[in-house]
UniProtKB/TrEMBL annotation:
GO terms for biological process: pseudouridine synthesis. This is Uncharacterized protein. SUPFAM superfamilies: Pseudouridine synthase. GO terms for molecular function: pseudouridine synthase activity; RNA binding. It comes from Brachionus calyciflorus. InterPro entries: PsdUridine_synth_cat_dom_sf.
Length: 306
């Protein structure tokens, strides 16, 4: 008898190259989340599961919450009558192995549930700074830029994108995505630049100095944005200049309308040698949303909690 469990994972992307299932082809890749999670589940449940992530994220992306469907060919011989206690047992074993992920919750799922295909949209936060000397505590959760960005122009571009998104909310993405958004009346893609934050570091004179940290909040993103977030954010930062806008919208639509095409040439720059973002250390997947009718469906049974 098969068993489908939905694990809500929280993990640090600093330790993983990606969630990508391509890593399964490698003999030993402990830097792939798929590989590390699979290895742990085999040791705990004594059978190899099929694993499918709600959102496949790129190198360096953290997840405050990312759902993962774990499918077992045989019903695991474990006590699942109390999800809270079972979570505690799982996390104890995870912590014992010093693995950089945790299980937030666990649900029983019907056979036809797909964590990726059933998801409606996702939210992100992106933290970045101009400073090249951010401290060792911020480094794993903060992206550095390779060059300065005009923050006022960036904010202006983001505001323009929000207006564009509202005006084209059911036509700016792929056909399948537009149909999904129209059917479930998903709110338009929304971005917000937050500027009131700072970090601290010691300079060459050993005095403590602060530097600005900026956050871009992204809401109602298509699920397929996960692997595209680097290109998406990088291009917004590179093109936060008035003279770049005519090219920007053309390339912006090319990326979000055709997500399965090779996007290696997406960045608008000579020979693609100029990248605004050095890494995705500051990118957080904060949540993945499903239709309440799916979660409340009579065939979907939650593991009872005391």
């Amino acid at each position: 008898m098969k068993k489908n469990l939905l694990l809500f994972l929280s993990y640090s992307g600093h330790y993983f190259s990606s969630t990508n299932k391509i890593c399964q082809k490698l003999a030993d890749n402990s830097t792939c989340l798929d590989f590390s999670l699979r290895k742990f589940l085999i040791s705990f449940f004594k059978q190899e599961p099929k694993i499918k992530f709600g959102v496949y994220t790129s190198r360096g992306t953290h997840a405050i919450m990312n759902p993962v469907l774990v499918n077992f060919a045989l019903d695991p011989d474990v006590n699942l009558h109390n999800s809270r206690k079972f979570n505690q047992v799982l996390n104890f074993k995870i912590n014992e192995r010093q693995l950089p992920f945790r299980v937030l919750n666990i649900l029983n799922m019907p056979d036809n549930f797909c964590p990726n295909g059933s998801a409606l949209y996702s939210n992100y936060l992106f933290r970045f700074t101009h400073n090249q000397e951010n401290n060792i505590f911020e480094y794993p959760i903060l992206s550095s830029l390779s060059s300065d960005v005009d923050i006022d122009n960036l904010e202006s571009l983001i505001n323009e994108l929000n207006i564009f998104s509202v005006e084209n909310k059911f036509s700016m993405f792929s056909d399948d995505e537009n149909f999904l958004r129209r059917k479930f009346q998903i709110e338009p893609l929304f971005m917000k630049l937050i500027k009131n934050s700072s970090g601290f570091f010691s300079d060459s004179k050993l005095s403590c100095r602060n530097y600005p940290i900026y956050t871009i909040e992204l809401k109602n993103c298509p699920i397929y944005f996960g692997p595209l977030m680097y290109d998406f954010l990088n291009t917004i930062l590179l093109n936060s200049k008035p003279e770049s806008k005519s090219q920007f919208y053309e390339q912006f639509l090319k990326l979000i309308k055709h997500p399965n095409q090779d996007q290696s040439s997406f960045c608008i720059d000579d020979a693609n040698l100029n990248y605004a973002i050095k890494n995705l250390n500051g990118l957080f997947l904060t949540n993945v949303y499903y239709d309440k009718k799916i979660l409340d469906h009579k065939t979907l049974k939650f593991l009872p909690i005391e």
